[in-house]
Structures are given as structure tokens and as C-alpha cells.
Amino acid sequence: MKNQIKTIVLLGILSAILVWIGGFLGTNYMYLFTAIALLMNLGAYFYSDRIVLAVQGAKEITPQQAPDLHRMVGELALQAQIPKPRIFVTDDPHANAFATGRNPKHGVVAVTTGILDVLNERELRGVLAHEIAHIKNRDILLSTIAAAIATAVTYMAHVLSYSALFGGGGQDGGRGAGGGGILFALVAPVAAVLVQLGISRSREYHADETGARISGDPDALATALERLARSAERIPSHTEPAMASLFIVNPFAGTEGLQSLFSTHPPVRLRIRRLRELSNSIMRVSTKSAA
Predict the structure, then answer these.
(1) Domain extents for the chain?
(2) Starting from the edge strand earliest in sequence, which strands make up the sheet with 86-90, in order?
(3) Which residues are known catalytic residues?
(4) Which run of H or of E encompasses 108?
(5) Which of 72, 170, 188, 282 has the fewest C-beta atoms lying within 10 Å of its C-beta?
(6) In 3D, which of 287, 289, 122 has the Cα closest to residue 212?
(7) What are the pLDDT digits (tens) for 24-64?
(8) Residue 98, strand partner residues
(9) Is the pTM of the predicted complex or chain greater than 0.85?
(10) Among 194, 186, 188, 145, CA closest to 37
């Protein structure tokens, strides 16, 4: 619930930035660039699964090829009360996993060959539960909404900058690019990206919690995250940086301190700590129930 509220608040802040910059340019510009951004991101929303799987070189596998993997995904999907996602494998020594698909009916879970080598069955089950949680929570839709707003803000900031350079002004009641408008044109895109990244991090926390409850084993996911983080340091990823947010752990090292503000993922140590706390909480409830 805490992470859900945080996501709603961050989306509200992102929307406020959009409306604010629209006040400098006028509503005509705001509607125009919001429409363009929505159209671009709607295309990504409907076709992102095909694009991502193609770029990653992922191949769909059958129950005959990977019976244990299909069994685990089927059991977890049943527990999450969603249709069983399709399963893909990427031939990549880098240990990681991701989920895609615009809704639970079109869900896809993909794992690398590296993660199959690094994790035992219990840990892999925890990772799969995390990815199924992303599908259940419709995180692809939320990411698309955030990306659309952030894109619109960036477009309008560019127009505001050009307006300042060439002496233009706002339209339809806009305040133009004078004074604070120039500074806002510089700050707004950075603020929008930071908020968008904050939403991505909050969804990771929420998927950790939801996945841990689906599997009933928070410790397994915590241990898996620890192993995957160490593995990522040894075997770097060759994926595109733009796709880093899809994976369960950041494929690229260095997300501590100020760098964490510009990361799509929370620091692994904080995710592990939250999962350990959740495990202890579940343990206490079970002990009280048994008493």
C-alpha cells in the first residue's frame, strides 16, 4: 500500500509539472505535445513486448523444453490469479530476468540462460514471482503513462527554450518564456525524468513485496537479489541502457548515493532489507496464529 501511494503521489507531481509548463506556453501547446507523447507511447505500449523480445534475442520455450520452468510459472500465475504468461529464454551469460506485455492476458516472463545457471530452484521461483507481480500490477501501463507525461514535458521545455531564444511568447493565455520561464525550461525536463525514475523504483519495491507474497517466500527473493547483484558485477550486460528498467536488477553497476536518483532500480541492499523485514513480519504473524 505504501508503494502504491508513493506511485500515485509521483504521478501527481509529474502531472503538475506538465500543467505548470503548460501555463508558460498556453493550453494549445500543452494539448498538442501531450497528444503527440501519448500517441508515441501508446505505440510502445502495444508493441513493446515484440520489440523488447526481438532486441534481446529471446526465444519462446515450450513445456517440453523446460518443464520445471513452466511448472513454476504456472503455479505462481495461479497464485497471483492471472493467466499463465508466455515464457522466453535469452541466450546470455548475464544473470537477469524481465517481464513485459501490456496486460495480464498478454504477459511474458523472460529469463537469461545466466540466471538459470546462477540460481537454485527456490531462488528462481522468487524471481519469477517478482516478474509475475509486475504483470499483475500492470506496471507496463504505469510506466507508459509516466513516460508519456515526461516526454510531453520535455517537448514543451524545448519549445519554451526556443521561444526564449527567438523572442516568442506563450499562446492562449500562456505566460511566455520570460523570467522564470527560461529557468523552468531547463529544470522541468530534469525534474520530470527524476520523478519518472522515482516511479520506476517504487514499482520495483512494490513488485518485490507482491512477488514475495505470491511465492510466500520473501527470503528466497532476497537471496536471489544478492546473488544476481554479485553476478552482474562479474558478468556485465550488453543490453541497451534504455531497457535497463525492465530487468529485476540493474544490469549496470553503480546505484548508490546520488547515483541512485538517476537509477531505474532502488539499491539492492535496501530491497533485501525490506524483504527481510517482510519475512520477519510474516513469521511473527504465523507464530501468533499458531499459538
Answers:
(1) 2-290
(2) 59-60, 86-90, 108-112, 97-100
(3) 131
(4) strand 108-112
(5) 282
(6) 122
(7) 666 666 677 667 666 766 666 677 778 888 888 999 999 99
(8) 110, 247
(9) no
(10) 145
